[in-house]
Amino acid sequence: MTGTDRKAPSPKTLRRLYALSGNLCAKPGCNTVLINADGTLVADVCHIEAEKPGGARFNKKLSAEQRGDARNLILLCGTCHKLVDREPQKYTVSILTKWKRDREDRFAAIGDTLRQRYVGEIVDEAEAADLTLPTSLKKYKRFLKKKRFSHTIDERTLDGIQTYVDRLRHVAGADRELMRAIVEKGLAMGGRRETESGISIHPDDLKTIKVDNRRLSDYRIGKLGKTLDRNNLGGLDADEEPVLQISVADHDLDWSTVKAFLESRGHTLRDVICDLKFGLLD
User: Fold this and answer.
1) pLDDT at 37
2) Using an 8 Å Cβ cutoff, are 124 and 14 in contact?
3) CA distances from residue 269 to 108, 120, 148, 261 in whole angstroms, order as listed
4) By CB neighbour count within 10 A (0-12 exposed, 13-18 middle, 19+ buried), where does 131 fall?
5) Model pTM?
6) For 142-162, how does the pLDDT look when each residue is reduced to its tens digit (9 = 90+)?
7) CA distance 149 to 143
8) Would you tell me which of 19, 21, 48, 84 could form a disulfide with 91, CB atoms 3.0–4.6 Å apart?
9) CB under 8 Å to 77, separation ≥6 — which residues?
10) Could you tell me if 195 and 151 are in contact, meaning their C-beta atoms sit under 8 angstroms apart?
11) Is 137:158 a contact under the CB 8 Å cutoff?
12) Is the distance from CB of 39 to CB of 158 less than 8 angstroms?
């Protein structure tokens, strides 16, 4: 049910699932909300019959379209999600289907007016993101040639960028903005903080950054590190001297060079890290 290469449900499917959830985990007796008091979506979109071979309750007779259909998806909290996948013999297809049917039938009875109001409040930033992808990197390669920088850019580079952007779009906008600030800080400090893999910086060097007029805390840095690690975008290495690392899409797209290219064309790192406009590299 998980994996960075899994296909996300469509916005229409997500709206339907949340509209009929009652904002509660579908497991009977679990009162965990799916949207917390901060308005953050904390639910897991789970497959009743697994999306891929080897997953819990996988049914090879189902087509890829059927596996991704709303009828095969159920909303659970993270704890219950792990539980039902850990014990698929106990939590069978029929049991999960009954949970889903009971919850959705109950909430559907509330009425169309309330349901439509609830649907209108649900927005997934990952689906709403108006991202762009490069198709050739022609202008970026021309910039590298002008600077006399060698490169190995090819089709695999474009594939790598697409994978990177797909991971990045699932990071909340506030976290992408913090990533940008940290990348800018690392570049400003120079030295060995930048490698072909990305930016690596000691958390103490980030204490000059403020978020909502508050100095960046160790807790916030740690939380970002977990988000980066979960999305294969870097992470916080706490062994001996702690280091926060933010990776790049490709070794030929190191942050300092990308920054210089963007600024030469009147753009900034915010355009790619925050707004996901990687098409500007074309």
Assistant:
1) 67
2) yes
3) 45, 32, 22, 10
4) middle
5) 0.59
6) 999 999 999 999 999 999 999
7) 9
8) 84
9) 25, 27, 30, 32, 34, 42, 43, 44
10) no
11) yes
12) no
Tell me the mean pLDDT in the region 26-44: 81
SS3 246: strand
Give the tokens for residue 36: 């917390």
Confidence bin at 7 (pLDDT 50/70/90): low
Between the alpha carbon of residue 277 and those of residues 28, 153, 161, 180, the distances in Å are 43, 19, 11, 14
State how far the Cα of 221 lies from the Cα of 214, in Å rounded to an integer. 13
Structure-block tokens of residue 169: 């779009």
Give the span between the Cα atoms of 178 and 269, in whole angstroms.
Answer: 12
Is 134's pLDDT higher than 60?
yes
Q: What is the pLDDT of residues 46-61, one digit of tens each?
A: 999 998 899 999 999 9
Whether the CB-CB separation of 132 and 278 falls below 8 Å is answered with: yes
In the block, residue with structure tokens 């970026």: 140
Cα atoms in the Cβ-side hemisphere of radius 13 Å centred on 186 = 26
Q: Which two tokens stand for residue 231?
A: 């999305």
Mean of pLDDT values over 1-30: 74
| DSSP code per residue over 13-76 | HHHHHHHTTTTB-SSTT---BSB-TTS-B--EEEESS-SSTTSTT--TTS-HHHHTSGGGEEEE
